[in-house]
């Protein structure tokens, strides 16, 4: 682990111990996939106190997530994740320009907000939805007033169910084998050779764990994320095609 990962490793253990010793819920900042792998490493090393933990980023399929140490079975009461969803929309849509995920990210960073204080950003036409911790969300409500040339307003909202459905596309693909490189190549229209750097650069995760072995076998129920492309779930394995290839039903998430 590098220095930043070692600091995070120690911080997560500290949060676990504080929750256990004080009988209170503790929460991490939003963690990227690589940072979540640091958390899993701490768990494998048995560094955490004997207390429950779970991850959540605002809704089920978020990539960036907080860790919560503690549960109702541990303490006898429940505390929700301190996460709010902020809707960002132009003040004058008639004259507004559509901006990308990167544009919203840049505007947030220009306010001096640390990346770990907000999670996934979903762009829906001229609107965007941003998951943030409660204090950051309150700050955005007052201070996030422009994206590019658009003057914007912010409000507390939820990611619409219609957007969740629109962002999800089901497809059936055919692969020679359920190897991770073969499946990713087929989903994102790449060659298997083109997928290799994504494994070596730790940009592929399966069920929240970074995968560096491109020959890892995938199966129904697996959730796969490829940084730079997006995320997909393997819904089910079908039979073989006439040419002997495996049919896989996948759900592909748009961003």
Automatic annotation (TrEMBL):
Domain Ribosome-associated protein quality control protein P2 RNA-binding intervals: 80-156
Keywords tagged on the record: RNA-binding
Methyltransferase keyword on record: no
SUPFAM superfamilies, per the entry: Alpha-L RNA-binding motif
Pfam families listed in its UniProt record: YlmH_RBD
Recorded GO MF terms: RNA binding
PROSITE patterns noted in UniProt: S4
InterPro entries, alphabetized: Nucleotide-bd_a/b_plait_sf, RqcP2_RBD
RNA-binding among keywords: yes
Name of the molecule in the record: RNA-binding protein YlmH, contains S4-like domain
Organism of origin: Pseudobutyrivibrio xylanivorans DSM 14809
């Amino acid at each position: 682990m590098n220095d930043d990962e070692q600091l995070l490793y120690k911080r997560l253990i500290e949060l676990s111990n504080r929750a256990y010793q004080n009988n209170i819920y503790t929460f991490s900042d939003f963690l990227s996939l690589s940072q979540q792998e640091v958390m899993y490493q701490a768990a494998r090393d048995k560094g955490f106190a004997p207390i429950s933990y779970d991850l959540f980023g605002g809704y089920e399929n978020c990539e960036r997530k907080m860790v919560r140490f503690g549960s109702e079975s541990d303490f006898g009461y429940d505390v929700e994740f301190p996460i709010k969803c902020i809707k960002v929309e132009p003040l004058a849509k008639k004259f507004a320009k559509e901006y990308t995920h990167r544009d919203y990210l840049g505007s947030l960073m220009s306010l001096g907000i640390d990346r770990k204080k907000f999670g996934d950003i979903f762009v829906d036409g001229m609107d965007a939805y941003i998951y943030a911790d409660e204090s950051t969300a309150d700050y955005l409500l007052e201070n996030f007033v422009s994206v590019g040339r658009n003057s914007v307003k912010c409000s507390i909202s939820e990611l619409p169910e219609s957007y969740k459905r629109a962002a999800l596309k089901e497809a059936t693909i055919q692969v020679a084998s359920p190897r991770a490189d073969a499946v990713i190549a087929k989903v994102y229209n790449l060659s298997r050779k083109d997928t290799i750097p994504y494994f070596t650069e730790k940009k592929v995760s399966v069920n929240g764990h970074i995968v560096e072995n491109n020959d890892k076998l995938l199966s129904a129920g697996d959730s796969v994320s490829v940084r730079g492309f997006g995320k997909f779930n393997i819904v089910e394995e079908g039979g073989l095609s006439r040419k002997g290839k495996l049919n896989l039903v996948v759900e592909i998430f748009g961003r």
